[in-house]
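S1.2 Input.
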Amino acid sequence: MKNLTEEEILNIFKKTEALLNGHFLLTSGRHSNVYFQCAKVLQYPEYNNIICAAIAEHYKNFEIDTVIAPAIGGIVVGQEVARQLNKRFIFAEREDKKLNLRRGFSIEKGERILVCEDVVTTGGSVFEVIDIIKQSEAVPVGVGFIVDRSKGKVQFGVPQKSVVSLDAISYEPGNCILCKENIPFIKPGSRKIL
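S1.3 Output.
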């Protein structure tokens, strides 16, 4: 399978109307004029396959037992990467505002785990999943994600691979220039923010 360039991936985002412009409230609580709605791209199996192949290819020679993702955005990415690597897949879900393993999922001591996510802005959900892995005395071997909104500023302390990396500007709510211009925001993500 041919690896696509970052520009080709961004064109897929545009073609599927997954790259949005406006005023958005991000899952991190920050505001931005750009939003990546990965679900709009990943609804097409051929794009999911191609995009996640870049992550799977990067980690194919790593010793990995399991792939884990934070719900909800990372589930489709994690499942496809796990499928391509032929590894077990599990996910963590939010319960009382904290990510936990549920549905009978468990992690064994010493298990080697790859974390997958769709979009990273501050990395909050990924850091939470890494904490779950470490609390289980397992080993986080890497992080793979589609969009790195931080252009490499967010570092997880393990090898990491993003398919698209750009410096997408985001603002603390109190310093948002879009709010100061009275442009109403929308919250397209999956997590409720209070």
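S1.4 Remarks. Residues 6-180 form a domain with the Rossmann fold fold (CATH 3.40.50.2020).
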